Amino acid sequence: MQVLVWKAFKVLLMSLGALALLATLLFVGINVWVVGKAQSRIETTLPLCRAERVGIVFGTSHWTRSGVRNPHFDARMSASARLIRLGRVDHLLLSGDNRTRYYNEPVTMWRDLRSREVRDADMTLDYAGFSTFDTLARAREVFDVHRALLVTQSWHLPRALFIADALGVEATGCAVPARPVSGLWKLVAREWVARVATIGDLYLWGRAPYFLGPLEPLEIAPREWDADQNAHAAEQARASTALVESAGNTERVERDTP
Questions:
Q1: What is the pTM of this model?
Q2: Dihedrals φ, ψ of 93, to 5°?
Q3: How far apart are CA 43 and CA 197, in angstroms?
Q4: Per-chain mean pLDDT for the chain
Q5: What is the mean pLDDT of residues 18-40?
Q6: Whether the predicted pLDDT of 3 surpasses 80
Q7: Is 75 helix (H, G, I), strand (E, B) or coil?
Q8: Hey, is 225 helix, strand or coil?
Q9: CB-based contacts of 59: which residues, under 8 Å, 6+ apart?
Q10: What is the CA radius of gyration of the chain?
């Protein structure tokens, strides 16, 4: 009897070990797939990020649980303001969580970017970006964004780009400069789990955004350098016209001269 019980126990242990190995391989395989699919579209040098009309900035908390300013938030805001100054993007879609009146990521981002001299006309706030999935789904379905530059940390970009592909948003990633921070391994580990969960969201249980709402296409204001270029082009056109008219007058004078 004891021999039979021991054999059954060994079979159970082997079965559990095989399942654990299979789960581990699947977990690692999904992460390798997600990262590999997006890696070639991630730029880590801000001035080299692909120029796009719209940059999507993912929200995060302004403060950490320990009560200090969140370095990931600072990095995203600093990079976003610089991308505007460099002309890599014309408009920023600030998407974040606003579940209660006491917590408002988009407004916090807007205030920070205003302090960095980003114009109000260059920012749109999305108050229902409760997750990476919601942010990208709303960017396409509510704000009519079909091409964008995604602005966030390098460890977050593979999943964001993977979701963008699945939702029909043509995107590239601009990784914000890394900053020394404690506990980063926890965020990276959580991101590994989130990538696996994303496969379920997209291909198994058909996740839908928490809230969509009516269509609100972005209103992208002309950039200052666009206006300068247009004025310069108009000035060149007037100069060319004046030159042609002057040449015509000279030719007529020469013909009329005996």
A1: 0.81
A2: -100, 110
A3: 25
A4: 86
A5: 93
A6: no
A7: helix
A8: helix
A9: 94, 95, 96, 97, 105, 106, 109, 129, 135
A10: 27
